[in-house]
Amino acid sequence: MKFFQGFLKILIITTLSISVSSCSQPDQDSADSPSAASITTAEAEIRNLSDEFTVSSEVTAYKRVYVASRISGVIEEVNFEEGEYVNRGDIMARLDVREQEVNLRRANTALNEAEDVYRRTESLFEQDAVAEAEYLSAKRALEQAETEVERLKLLVEYGEIKAPISGVVTARLVEMGNNVSANERMFTIADLDLLVTRPGVSELNLAGLEESQHVDVRLDVYPDVIYPGTIRRIFPAVDALTRLFTVEVELIQEDHLPAIRPGYLARVRFAADDRQEVITVPSEAVYLLNGESYLFVLSQDETSVSLTPVEVGVQRDGFAEIRDGLEAGMKVAASNLEALEDSAHVQVVGTFRRHGFRN
Questions:
Q1: Residue 93, domain member (yes or no)
Q2: Do the domain assignments include residue 14?
């Protein structure tokens, strides 16, 4: 009897175990359903995807004049030195022209005599008292005397070295008492109201540049300061030696920035393809399907994605420009795209990081 009661207990326990196992089988089948795809995400951000390059060149004054002596002589007066401002027409130096003045007085005397001879000869010629050849000879002598006076007046006038433009004296190459020859350089005058730099640009980068385009300029002397500049003109022909096109950039001097001086080395940053403040995502996030571009955009709770068509612009530095279909701040899948489809469940395992490119 005791044996029968023990056997009955074992039979009841076994039956209950089978029943419990049978009831829990549907939950086990549910756990075996496909799991969510693991992805990393990237946020759509505003970036500068302009095609930029930097070229260095020296700062120069747009108007720079070399003042030279037109005659030879000894300098007896120097009125300006480096750093001083001159107005157009100011006498910067004087040469000793006493010899030219003596010659001018002699020439004036000869001119008076030639005028007297011409008047007497003209009167006699009108009375048919002299031949026409004698009259013409007197006339030519008068013209030659007048020409000589004008030449000597110019030589005396050239003794005053005058400023051809208004500006700042950037170089004085002579001192009082020096003997200068004709066409010898004496001063350099620069108009500092308009400063430019003229870097050479490759023809491959020239297509995206145009006049009046804004550029950023840094000077080596002030490396942390960005000066505004504009492209003033692009030279029409390539330099035969460097095979580069000269691009003239006007530097804009603002009162709150350190002063720019000729001779500074400038580094000009050009944007051949200007694409500032565009919406971007990593290039890996763009999914191509039947020749069209898509993004897998995350839901707000980041548990699923939706396949969204977008218009892609340039792809540069590891990022793609999104022209339409996405707003800044939205998150997209950036990895494991092959395992995704529209409305797929996902599991975010990390954030996509791009290293080695522009920020």
A1: no
A2: no
